Amino acid sequence: MVRFKENRGMTLKEKIRINIIADSFIILSIIMVDILIVRLFMISLALYKHYYFVKKIKTISQEEYEAQYIKTDSAT
Questions:
Q1: Strand (E) or helix (H) holding 60
Q2: In whole angstroms, what is the distance from residue 11 CA to residue 5 CA?
Q3: Confidence (pLDDT) at 63
Q4: Contact yes or no for 33/42 (Cβ under 8 A)
Q5: How far apart are CA 39 and CA 30, in angstroms?
Q6: Which of 16, 25, 60, 64 has the highest CB neighbour count under 10 A?
Q7: Which has more pLDDT, 46 or 76?
């Protein structure tokens, strides 16, 4: 999370992993809740989450990640 705050970007692998975990909980919530308005809210939340991850969070390549963070870690 610190890396994301520093350069506002994530690798594709990080984005997919976070989305799978979040989607699992959202789907579980949709299945367990019987209130229609809550289900609709959870669906809209999932759609917004995907929009935000695709449009707002920059995807950085693995090479950019390694160049930026591995060099920084070895310097300390």
A1: strand 58-60
A2: 13
A3: 85
A4: yes
A5: 5
A6: 60
A7: 46
